[in-house]
Amino acid sequence: MELADLVSTETVLASLKASGAKQALQELGRRAAEAYGLDCRAVTEGLLARERLGSTAMGAGVAIPHARVPALTSIVGLFARLDKPVDFDAPDGQGVDLMFTLLAPEDAGADHLRALARVSRLLRDETIRTKLRASDDRAAIYALLTEVSASRAA
Fold first, then answer.
1. Do 7 and 149 meet the contact criterion of CB atoms below 8 Å apart?
2. Nearest CA among 150, 135, 39 for reference residue 79
3. Alpha carbons 33 and 11: distance in angstroms, whole number
4. Cβ(58)–Cβ(68) below 8 Å
5. CA–CA separation, 57 and 90 (whole Å)
6. Nearest to residue 28, comparing CAs of 6, 43, 50, 49?
7. Which pLDDT does position 103 carry in this prediction?
8. What is the pLDDT, as a whole number, of residue 42?
9. Are strands 76-86 and 12-16 parallel, antiparallel or unpaired?
10. What pLDDT was estimated at residue 154?
11. For residue 110, how far is the Cα from the chain centroid?
12. How far is CA 19 from CA 43, 80, 96, 103, 134, in A?
């Protein structure tokens, strides 16, 4: 599964404004619902419910919020670069400023886990994180996410 299958230029947010984790998740839920024609409340509640189970922050300023959404037929994503880091209860105590949201059908099973693993591998790379933080152009961010992902899969 390639990241180009999960996001598009339109689902890359180059400078999302949020004052905290909850507001960031609400805004991501709203934007994902708009982009994919989903019920905003269902998406947002799914993201918030998953976060209550434990933080999806993985450290180094990265979080991968995810949820299962009944209306979906395939896994979809949304990438956001926050204009300033927010507290996300990360294991390293760092604020989060890079968020890759994954939404999956209720029966996604192993595909959902593979998508999470793919995103996690990419965002663990310090060079990639630095480049993502340096750009405020959605097309450039999209290209970085998808080109690096595709080249690593080869």
1. no
2. 135
3. 11
4. no
5. 5
6. 43
7. 97
8. 94
9. parallel
10. 42
11. 18
12. 20, 14, 11, 23, 21
The C-alpha atoms of residue 107 and residue 97 are separated, in whole angstroms, by 30
- Distance, in Å, from the CA atom of 47 to the CA atom of 29, rounded to the nearest integer, reads 7
What phi and psi, each to the nearest 5 degrees, are found at residue 7? -130, 160
Residues in the chain: 154
* Secondary-structure class of domain 3-153 per CATH: alpha beta
> Which H, E and C letters describe 38-96, residue by residue?
CCHHHHHHHHHHHHHHCCCEEECCEECCEEECCCCCCCEEEEEEEEEEECCCCCCCCCE
Question: Residue 138: which pLDDT band, with cuts at 50, 70 and 90?
Answer: very high
Distances (CA, A) of 34 to 53, 70, 76, 93: 26, 16, 13, 32
User: What phi and psi values does residue 106 have, to the nearest 5 degrees?
Assistant: -60, -30
* Interval 40-87: pLDDT, tens: 999 999 999 999 999 999 999 999 999 999 889 999 999 999 999 999
Domain boundaries, the chain: 3-153
Active site residues: 66
